[in-house]
Structure formats: C-alpha cells, structure tokens
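Dear support,

We are seeing what looks like truncated structure output for some complexes. This example has two components. We would appreciate it if you could run it in full and send us the complete token output so we can diff it against ours.
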Amino acid sequence: MCIITLLLISIVVGTGPSAQSEQGQSGGTIESIEQVEETSPPREGTPLPTLSQARLAEFKLADTTGAARGLFDQDGPDLVVVAMISTTCPIANASIPEIRRLHDAVKKVGGRFFVVHPMVATTAESASLHARERQLEMPVLLDPQQQLVREFKATVVPEVFILTRSDVAWTLRYRGPFDNLYAEIGRRRRNATKAYARDVISQIVTGRPVPVAKRPAVGCLIEKVGKGSP
Amino acid sequence: MIWAALFITLLNMGVSGQATPPKIDAPTVEPPTWNDQIGSIIETRCVTCHAPGRSGPFSLATSDAVQNRATFLIEVIEAGRMPPWLPRAGVFEHQRTIPASEVSAIRAWRDGGSPIGEGPPKILVAAVDGAFQTDLVLQMPAAYEIPEESDPAWHSGELDVHGVNFPLQNSAPLKVRAIRHVAAAPRAMKVAAFAFDTTGTGRYLDDRDSRVGFLMGGDAGLRPVGADGMILNGSGDFRLPVGFHLPVERGSDLVAQFQYRPTGKVERLQERIELELVPEDQESRPVRWLPLAVGRVQIDAEVVKTYTSKEIVLEGAVDLVGLSPRAIEICKSLWVDAVFPSGVRKRILEIPDWDHHQRETYVPVTPIRLSAGTTLMASFLLDNTSENPRNPDDPAVPIRRGRRTGVLNVIAQVAAVEPEFDDVFVAWRDRISQAFMRP
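Here is the complete output from our reference environment:
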C-alpha cells in the first residue's frame, strides 16, 4: 500500500522526464505567480507559474477549530489542491458534490485537499456548520486576511487551484472552475458535462500533458479587504 | 494682502519661472448613507428575497452584509442578473428593475466608505404581502427529498421538477382570485405552476409513483400546468386583477408542478399552497387559459431555429390578464405578438434572455382588451448548439419532442368580455388544443 502510494506520488509530481518535457517546465524558482495570466492555453515551452517551497511553507491558515494549518508542508505530499468556496455563494454550493468527488480523487493518489473560505464575513462557526451540513471531510480553512487570495490572485469563488511540487518548487498546473456546470452567472447546465479538475488530476497522475492550465472561474466576487472598498 | 499674494505666486514659479496652477479644492459631495438612502433602496429592491428564511442565498438585511458584497451587488445588477425579471416589453405587476440612479447611489456609498449616517444602522425587514386573505390551505402531508444535485437525465424532458396533487374536495364551485406558495426550502425552490383539474390526472400520476408526489410535470389532460398561474418563488403571490377569478369546478384537485434547483445539500420539498377566494358579494368574470403553443419540436444538433405557434384568431373580445410562458432549456428568447383587426401589430411580451427557472405569470398592470378578430401568436428561438450553455447536452444532440399541451407554450389567461363568448370559449379552446399534435 505504502509503495503504491509512493509510486503514485512520484508520477503525480511529474519527476519523470516525460512529464517535465511535455509541460515545458522551466524548473527554475519564481517568487511570484504573475505568470498565471499567461497559462491558458499553455504553449510548448511556456513556463507554468511556480512558487518556491520556502515561500509557500509560510502559508498557515486557521481551520474551523482555530488551529493553524500549513498547506504546503515540507514533508507533505507533492500534490496540493485548494478549493476556494463560500458558505453562501449558490454557485459554490452547487459545486459541493463535485468538490467531494474531486477530494476522493485527490485522496486516492495521496494528495492533500483543502477547502479555503476567503470571504470577509465567513466565521469559523458558519464554515464549520456549512461543512457539516454538506459532509465536507477535508480540512476547512479560513483566509480572513486574504493572504492566499492575494498570492493566487483569486477574484471569485468557487475556484480550484491544483499544484504539484518538484524539488523545491511548486507549479500551478490548473486554476479555474471544477467543471462546466456554470457558463456564467445565471447560466447553469442541468448537470455538468465536463469535469475539468478531475481530468487534470488524471492527466497529472498518468503523466499526460494538462492541455488547459487556466479557465475563467465563474462565481461570486471576493470583496477584497483593506482597499478602501469593503 | 497684495504683497502676500505676489509672494506666493513667486514661490510657486520656482526656479523654472513657470507658475504651477493654484490648487483648487473640488466641491465635496457627501456620499449617501445607509440610514438615509441606501438601506431603503436595498429594502425595496433586494430584501424581499435576500433576508433570513427567504429565497435569496444570502441575507442583505444589514449594512455589514451589503458592505461585504457591494461590488458583487453592483456587478450583478448591471449585468441584468438581479433582480430576476425576464420581460423587456410591457408593464406588469411585480416588475423588478433597479433605476440607474439607485445603482449609482450604491456605488457612491461603497466608494465613500459605506457610511452609516445618524444613529445605529437600520436593520432591514422583508416586506410581507398583508393583502392576502387565506381562505383555503393545502399542505403536503409528507416531504419529498430534493437531491443535492440534479439526477442524470433519464429522458429528454424537463428535470428538476416534481408534481404534487392536492385534493380540494370542494363540494361547490370556487372562485379563486389569488394563490400563495410557501416553500419548505426557499433557496432550492424556483417556480410553482398550477392547474385545477377535474380529470383525475394528478391522482393517477400520484398513485403510479411510490414517492411523495410524482417525478414529472403536472399536465392534466389537455390542460397545461401553469394554466392557472405560475409563481417565481420569492416574487410574491399570483393575484388576478379585481373583477376576475379562476373558476374551480366542484370536486377539483390542484395539480402543482414545482421546479427546483439543487443546492448542494439535500433539501425538503413540502410545500404549502394558500388560496384566496372572491367574496360572495363581489362580481367577477372567469379567467380561461388559451395556449399559444407549439406541439412538436424537431431540431437537429448545432441548429438555431425559430418556432412560431399556430395563429389564434379570437372569435370574441377578451381581456388579457396574464401570460405564463414555458419552454425547453435550449430556448434563448421568446415573444408574443397581437395583430389587431386594423392590421396593427403589437408585441405584448418579449423575453430576450429566457431562463425557465425564473419564469412566472406576467400580469399586466391594466388588463389588455383584445377585440374579436385579433390574432395572437408566440414565437420561440431555439438554440440547439453545443455553445449554448443552457443546452443540457454537450455536444448537442437532435431533439425530437412532442407534447399535446405544448413543448413550447405561452399560456394566455383571458376573460371573455361577453358572457355569450364565455359560454362557448372552452369548447372552442379545446378544439384548438387538440390540433397541436397534428402534423
């Protein structure tokens, strides 16, 4: 069991030469995620945005019990998925079943999955109740100061961020919606017909290229803290 | 004084010798405050739904709640997504729009630091339609469970709908003038559509399904559900103008179709319907349903096509008191035209961006008199391309559907002006309805 997990993680992080060349990763350490805007569609040889382990290790957010949790621990697995949601956004809530499916897929390959609440008004109590009512079994964290929001340049919820680590650098392999349930606000399919995020996990695990690294997220605007506006 | 002014001017010229323009303070405009203006706007426009226990997904009843969403609020209002209101033409009851001046005020409030104003911040209260007189209450005895997400399609029809039959067991005819729908899970419930039925169709459908209610729409024979009104949850009651009523025959059932949106968790569907009757001493005319419908739809994948209903020429004068549209998910827009005997054509309903989860009966503020010889027709633009985000199929597939109550239908609620026309109306209307499915 342990060996299988390690093997899978080895594939997930893309340490094999095929994954490196297919993605055209630079392998260098970039201290900003500015390049994220250029990742869709990824072109051959275009570097994907990366962040150093040292920088991301600084990110510690409180969970619903108030305990500080690291998202990108040095000794943790090399696949981390962050789902930014809110307790009240109907688009985020409609994605809950897909979030659970994605969590299962990530857990199966030994990755870590976090739900992060970036909305100003979300409290530990409301996030905890929301998770209980919807059977969210992964760690649920709060980002009241919007540190992760700024780092990822997140603007709406829901949005998922899929990162893999190679050596000391994390690469953002995908950001965007979980699936195509919503084309835009008010335009919802009866059921999603494409599971973008789960497909990316599958592509990473099997060493295939991730054809689209960024899709526009559809959802509720994250009101920013500390910019004059609420 | 003059010397002082000269000295300042020289200082301003500096070493370059060029005078910098004197700084003039712009007149200060105080932003509106929550207590004097913004609270009232939000209370009137938003809190009917966005209050605890109401249909909106979050509350906007406090200044903090609005402050925390002000930018998003402005965005969805300007995009035409909120408040939900589909028609472009016409003047209807419950018309929900927000004037640009009010949006500007919300923006100025946000940009000005969201001031509260004098006194403690006002807590907003959702308006209650106190005018409703409850004469009859129909309550589902048990709950149906709305799943956390839509079931996968098991046929090409509408999903996320649940039918319920409410036996009225009325021993005498009733004159209903208003219907209220109280949802058990207001955030999941979208549309309730009604049809009073004497055929037993609702009971038959109920008996065949072991669940509470039945897992399909509630068309009763030729009578389409919605014939007796539709309510968008949160938008208020369905009420006919004074002087009109829905005639309910003795021994009727109320067949209701509830259309919901799964919310990501299991919700309860255990609805209550209340009826208000016309007082016995009040004169009123019966309102009949008239279908402007397309019975069959055949559209290939990746095709955009307009369907127009059979033209209906009125054999007598009527007052139009409601328009209740229904259409399949790939419908992009729909409109209803009236061509008067003079040849003048008038658009009486136009919905440029159709969403069947936001439909309701549109009741003209003043009934529209349509003289004998007026032609009515409804048109529907269907977009069966893969790019249409409301297309449940991706890639698109050919659609072949038929429904004797109309796959596409704008049900007109009308009352005959002369009793003689009312006497023959039902037989005339049923002849029209039976022709829908003929090639």
